[in-house]
Amino acid sequence: MESISVFDMLKIGVGPSSSHTLGPWRAAGRWIDHCKRHGYFDDITEISVDLYGSLSLTGRGHATDVAVQLGLCGFDPVTFPIENIETEIESIKNNHILKLNSELDIPFVAKENITFNRKFLEFHPNGITFRCLLKNGTKRHMTYYSIGGGFVVQKERKRAKKKLKNFGNFPYQTETGIDVIKYCNEEGFPISEMVLQNELSLRTETEINEGLKAIWDVMLDSMYVGCHTVGTLPGGLNVRRRAYATHKTLMPDESKYNNATEWVEAIRNTEVKFRQILKWVSCFALAVNEVNASLGRVVTAPTNGSAGVIPAVLMYYMVIENHDANFEDVRRFLLVSSEIGSLFKKGATISAAMGGCQAEIGVSSAMAAGALTELMGGSPEQCLIAAEIAMEHHLGLTCDPIGGLVQIPCIERNAMGALKAINACELALDADPSQTKVPIDKVIATMWQTAKDMANKYKETSEGGLAVQVNMSDC
Ligand code: SF4
Question: Ligand 1: which of 406, 420, 469 to mutate, judged by most atoms within 8 Å of the beta carbon?
Answer without folding.
Answer: 406
